[in-house]
Amino acid sequence: MITVSGVAALGGLLFGFDTAVISGAIPAITAYFKLDGNALGWAVGAVLIGCAVGALFAGRLADALGRRFMLIVCAFLFAASGIGAGLSGSLPVFIAFRLAGGLGVGAAAMVSPMYIAEISPAAWRGRLVSLYQLAIVLGILGAYFSNYTLAGIGRDDWRLMFASQAAPSALFAVLLCFVPETPRWLAAKGKKTHALLVLGKINGLVDAPALLEQIDRSFEGQQIGVAEVWKKSYRPAMITGILLAVFQQVTGINAIIYYAPVIFQHIGGNMASPLLQTIAIGVVNVLATCVAIGLVDKWGRRQLLVAGCVLMGLMLTALGLCFRFGYFGHYLVLIFMLLYVAAFGCTLGAVVWVYLSEMFPNRIRGMALSIATLALWVADFAVTYSFPVMTERLGTASIFFVYAAFCLIAFLFILVKVPETKGRSLEEAEALFE
Questions:
Q1: At the N or C end, where does the chain have fewer CB atoms within 10 A?
Q2: Confidence (pLDDT) at 260
Q3: DSSP string covering 78-110
Q4: Domain extents in the chain
């Protein structure tokens, strides 16, 4: 199970690498393509548009063609994006390949955790799905180190930065050929003998028939179409999933990740280079995700989400006060930012993906997870685009207070509306919302 889930989680590693690799290439592509501010925004943000489109269609395609097949498609898109962007001679071609990479990122963001959730036994599911978030932050950290290694080796070093993701993409595609399709998808397609075989390997031959019967019942009355997910019986799960996806973003994580060097410039200090600061944030994110893997099946999803909202809100409030009163001594801004990233990494960062992957009924999981992931990417784009605008108009302190307010809203919502799913089968978890 660890091996199979680890292979599927590699989609997250490529996701993190693809979205973060551009950070080290920005100066080079700005000079090469002669970019102004708007053009640079398109070059950097095109991947998020691709993510939204990929998330929108991946659910239906994963239901029709299979989870594993869609992950192989994502691997191809990752490789094509890296090679194409690295060979680009014009800005439109570069943006087109970044959009293609975004399609892979958006699709992998929903298919990888869905695959792991559908193939994992209930007692392990939280930890195994958390491997996906660990892979994302390892991919981000890998991109930072790759950029650092390749920077300065030649005039076209930025081309190698993008092309370097082709190798892990090819490895991902090859490894996927040796893992099984999920038993839920097999059962949905009437391949019950194959589904029983996979369930027997996962849960044991004694329990497999009863589990298959439970899965079959969950597909009774299945209908196809977007309207299905908004039926009255599914509406609570849909609203909860969408709001959790949005809260993961509007509490400010990508404003911190993307704009950390800009934030540090505002304090007027010279603590370390922007590259070392981003690497520090990446390392903390990896360590925090490891903590989440150890806790998610012990403490439970709901408890970690509640604790994360509290800790993140406190750190954001502290950052806002530092900027409000102009106190930047003793590395407090760096400390509070690292604590905020640590709190996010071991709570909302990992646990939201776990929750989204297991809360939707089998009948609508593909489409529902697609819609929730689309909402996540739209929220990500909104935060990324609005941060510099809000900073200019409201000031850095005010925007930290805004993110802290969203942490409070998320805390109250989770406390009142989000049930615990720890230790339940997927079919038992879906009953909590019906």
A1: C
A2: 67
A3: HHHHHHHHHH--SHHHHHHHHHHHHHHHHHHHH
A4: 1-179, 221-434
Whole-number pLDDT of residue 275 = 61
- What pLDDT does residue 270 have? 47
pLDDT confidence of residue 409: 96
Q: What is the pLDDT of residue 411?
A: 96
The token duo for 83 is 């090679």
pLDDT computed for residue 2 by the predictor: 80
- Residue 37 has a CB neighbour count (10 Å cut-off) of 8
> Which regions in the chain score pLDDT beneath 50?
270-272
Please choose, from the candidates 252, 253, 244, 249, the residue with its C-alpha nearest in 3D space to the C-alpha of residue 371: 244
DSSP 339-390: HHHHHHHTTHHHHHHHHHHHHS-TTTHHHHHHHHHHHHHHHHHHHHHHHHHH
Q: Does domain 221-434 have CATH number 1.20.1250.20?
A: yes
pLDDT at 410: 95
- Assign domain 1-179 to its CATH superfamily: MFS general substrate transporter like domains (1.20.1250.20)
Q: How many residues does the chain have?
A: 434
